[in-house]
Amino acid sequence: MNLDKIVCNCMSVTNGMIKDAVEAGATTLEEVQEATGAGTVCGACLDDVQRLVDHFVAESGK
Fold it and tell me: Which of the listed CATH numbers 2.10.10.20, 3.40.50.1970, 1.10.10.1100, 2.60.40.1470 matches domain 6-60?
């Protein structure tokens, strides 16, 4: 996975930033939104952000 790929254009949030938020303790979409701002402007990326949160949470074993 390209961690530099932007997933939220409005807030310039990358895959890596989502991963960092999960590694810092975020385990839900809402917690990741609070940490990164992803999906808080237009919402077009919410499905992608949710999939990434689910992926990184599962990967981390939380």
Answer: 1.10.10.1100
* 29-47 mean pLDDT: 98
C-alpha pair distances (Å), 7 with each of 13, 19, 22, 61, 62 = 6, 12, 15, 23, 22
The CA-atom distances, in angstroms, between 49 and each of 4, 42, 58 are 14, 13, 14
Q: Supply the mean pLDDT for the chain.
A: 97
Does the pTM exceed 0.90? yes
